[in-house]
Amino acid sequence: xxxxxxxxxxxxxxxxxxxxxxxxxxxxxxxxxxxxxxxxxxxxxxxxxxxxxxxxxxxxxxxxxxxxxxxxxxxxxxxxxxxxxxxxxxxxxxxxxxxxxxxxxxxxxxxxxxxxxxxxxxxxxxxxxxxxxxxxxxxxxxxxxxxxxxxxxxxxxxxxxxxxxxxxxxxxxxxxxxxxxxxxxxxxxxxxxxxxxxxxxxxxxxxxxxxxxxxxxxxxxxxxxxxxxxxxxxxxxxxxxxxxxxxxxxxxxxxxxxxxxxxxxxxxxxxxxxxxxxxxxxxxxxxxxxxxxxxxxxxxxxxxxxxxxxxxxxxxxxxxxxxxxxxxxxxxxxxxxxxxxxxxxxxxxxxxxxxxxxxxxxxxxxxxxxxxxxxxxxxxxxxxxxxxxxxxxxxxxxxxxxxxxxxxxxxxxxxxxxxxxxxxxxxxxxxxxxxxxxxxxxxx
Length: 444
What we know:
By secondary structure, the chain is an alpha+beta fold. Helix content is about 30%, strand content about 25%. It folds into two domains: about 5-295 and about 430-440, no CATH class; about 300-400, no CATH class. It contains 13 helices and 24 strands. Strands 1, 5, 6, 7, 8, 10, 11, 12, 13 and 14 form a ten-stranded mixed β-sheet that branches. The chain has a six-stranded antiparallel β-sheet with strand order 17-19-18-21-16-20, sandwiched between helices. A two-stranded antiparallel sheet has the order 2-4. The two termini are about 20 Å apart.
């Protein structure tokens, strides 16, 4: 049992470790664990293969809404799917599929197909310390713009759910490696909770239980140091007009925003004494060090659908006419932005010599937002992997755009000084490297 005094320390840094759920030992973990619901959104065949593999086994597939179906299912089909999700959550709770760990942090080791490893810790964070609005100065902060229109379908999924399952990954800027790495070095001394191969060639994963107060105290002490205002100002060379940023959302920004929106609705119904401990106040996440060698920033590319190629290229030239816009067949040297595109008829490069923004993703996204607003029949998807862009972009009526990776060491300072980045600026690995649902938590 964690003492009240120690809980006050955890509250200062916005974390909660009161409860986490895992499947019991007799569950097939490879079938239980499923990749984040916002992956493979233009590849429904992936999710069909997962469905076939899982069969009738208990699985997080029954507890999530793969976003590949958000655009293809009608309202009635969506309602039915959400009802089924809620029913499965209740069934898994009632049938003792899940076991609860109290006052516990879970240490994660994810091994990828290339042999690289990434470490993280799973715990819950306080949604009162998170604000996704523009210009936020909260302790937990979005790294990309939150699209409010994307929240309602996600709120419908969560608002009556008994459980949450996290694909949210928060980053800490721990250059000295004081929080997670000391735990990883002695992982074998902790009780192992699981170790298995992930489905569909996605590598493997291990998890260990950390429940000793001394160990959790070391985590808290290191996070307190990172969140110390003077330390923060010195590290980023900023004045006291800038509030501390401790946790930056790396993955799952809209899922965390959904949790926040649901909490704001729930807390209106609560008595004052319920506000402190209601489970919906917290959201389960994995925390990863920005400086972990296994954490790689990949670009997120764009594919647009049902588009007139000539019209799009003409509109691009007009949109950036005053900024030195051009289109070339071959890549040319420029101090501006050069963005490769593919279509069914050609490959070329969009050029903007004097961009208004720092990153090429901002240049492209600003134009695509404008273009799709004018052409509502044109759709867009955000995809990982150049091979996917090639395959989808070259299909008739489509175009694919390739973007360059962001230097991850620039992330925190950029967010602190400039606010949220353009949406879908970077991805922490490609689709198969994303977080898999394993842990769960009661929110009702």
